[in-house]
Amino acid sequence: MRSSTTAFMAFCAGVLLAACREAPITTLDTPNFSALGSGSVSVVNVSRDTTAQNETPIAVNPANPLNMITGNNDWNYNDGCGVNATFDGGKTWTPTLPSGFIPGITAFTNDPAVPGTGTYDFGGDPYVAFSPDGRTAYFTCFGYRGKQVALWLSRSNDGGKTWTAGGPDHPLTLVSAFQGEGKARGSNGQFPDHEAITVANDGTIYVAWAHFTGFSAHSPIFIAVSRDGGNSFALPVKVSSGSVRSDQDARIAVDPRTGYAYVTFDNSIQGGKGTAMYVSVSKDHGATWSNSIQFATFQNPVCLYPPYCFNISGAQYRAPGSYPAPAFDPTTNRLYVAYTDIVAGKAQIFLTSANVTGITTWTTPQVVAPASGDRINVELSVDPASGRIDMISQDRSYSGNTLVDVSYITSANGGNTWSTTRVTKTSWDPSSQGVPCSDCAGGIRPFIGDYNGIVSLPGSAAMVWTGPGKTFGTYPTNLEVYFASVTP
């Protein structure tokens, strides 16, 4: 979710009231990893700059797996949508400074001496994807100006080196064009938020987001579709759980065999964020969507949103809560969903799945490689050739449940057994570093973003996350984007 004051207040007003309440607890066996991973790990600092980045999706070029892109909220100069690209499998990346912003969003760039080609005061919620032929990279991002919020799509034809220039001569594509004379429009507590982009094998582009409708805490999911390579989007279609409470955290996975698209999201039902999870399917490229099916519920969803909630132990910081992360396995025709939930006093990863021929029947959620510390912010990917399941999680198992690391968790047999690899070498405390904040104690607001990224490659997984960097100046406000390539 964006860091804007409007988004913050509207979100907190209606959907977090019950997120920290106690719920019935299921006792786990003695926590341990199923097995320790024995593969290689290579970690690279992507952003290499002086101020914070967070929220780090990743996409790989299907025609050239050495070419990947990652986005971020970039706090270097005000706040914009940052992007980095690699052409050597993650060994080196395009620089963050001085031109690491997506053009056409903000009225400034990463160079204070160079004005931007956009009109917005700040931007955020980055998401990235490639076309199936690899010729085009896509970047979605919100722009914020006063009470106005708009969702935009930018394109790159050189693997992420350069992007749509912006301005009247080279405009970005407006995605959220469903209000106010073809322009997205927000007001106090009314705005689109937390989008995600998925591109199907036939080139269909799906962009999903939650649309908050005011301080009523109601936020149905909207999905917009492009069938012309992102030149234009059809009018968004609403998908809802049927509850008047908040639907959020929408992600889309597509069955490459049939082209059917599946959107998963969570809903607070009658209280806190993330009480239940739902799935809806479109069989006509996003023109219509089925009634939503509830496939799982949370016992005690993770909620790291101080001062309103922080329901794990330790010093407080803002980080991802519980949400469903879907991935499709074409080798078994199964839709997998991973999420986090607090059981036996610790946040653990759960996995459930359904055969898409009977999407109403889901497996009983199982704990993935039970851990001795909290595991939050799980992201999921499946290798389409082998069916290998890959996950990234921020993991407190290596520090007595006090500090944060990153773990890679993988299964080559459909989740029957798991292997866990520690990706980071040093644990760190997210409450001690953060993003610049002029009116916060210590000059920082501890915030590591609301999502990370992972993609599955033949024989390896590539992942990105936010971690600590060298301190520049008085305050510890330099969180960096990190990339890892890990073999199972």
Summarize this, please?
2% of the residues lie in helices and 40% in strands.
Explain the overall architecture:
This protein is an all-beta fold. It has one domain: Neuraminidase, CATH 2.120.10. The protein is 2% helix and 40% strand. The protein has one helix and 32 strands. The strands form nine sheets. Strands 1-32-31-30 form a four-stranded antiparallel beta sheet, with no helix packed on it. Strands 2, 3, 4 and 5 form a four-stranded antiparallel beta sheet that branches. A four-stranded antiparallel beta sheet has the order 6-7-8-9, with no helix packed on it. The radius of gyration is 20 Å and the shape is globular. It starts with a helix and ends with a strand.
Radius of gyration: 20 Å
CATH architecture: 6 Propeller
Provide the low-confidence segments as ranges. 1-31, 178-187
Based on DSSP secondary structure assignment, what is the total number of beta strands? Answer: 32
Number of helices: 1
Strand line-up across the major sheet: 1-32-31-30
N- to C-terminal separation? 31 Å
SS-derived structural category: mainly beta
What's the main sheet like? 4 strands, antiparallel
CATH fold node name = Neuraminidase
- How many domains is the backbone divided into? 1
Mean model confidence by pLDDT: 89
| The top level CATH class name | Mainly Beta
Write the layout of secondary structure elements.
Layout: H1 5-15, E1 41-45, E2 53-54, E3 58-61, E4 64-74, E5 80-86, E6 122-130, E7 137-145, E8 148-156, E9 173-174, E10 190-199, E11 205-213, E12 221-226, E13 237-239, E14 247-254, E15 261-267, E16 276-282, E17 293-297, E18 304-305, E19 309-310, E20 325-329, E21 334-343, E22 346-355, E23 366-367, E24 375-382, E25 389-395, E26 405-411, E27 419-422, E28 435-436, E29 444-445, E30 453-457, E31 460-468, E32 479-486
Antiparallel strand pairs: 1-32, 2-4, 3-4, 4-5, 6-7, 7-8, 8-9, 10-11, 11-12, 12-13, 14-15, 15-16, 16-17, 18-19, 20-21, 21-22, 22-23, 24-25, 25-26, 26-27, 28-29, 30-31, 31-32
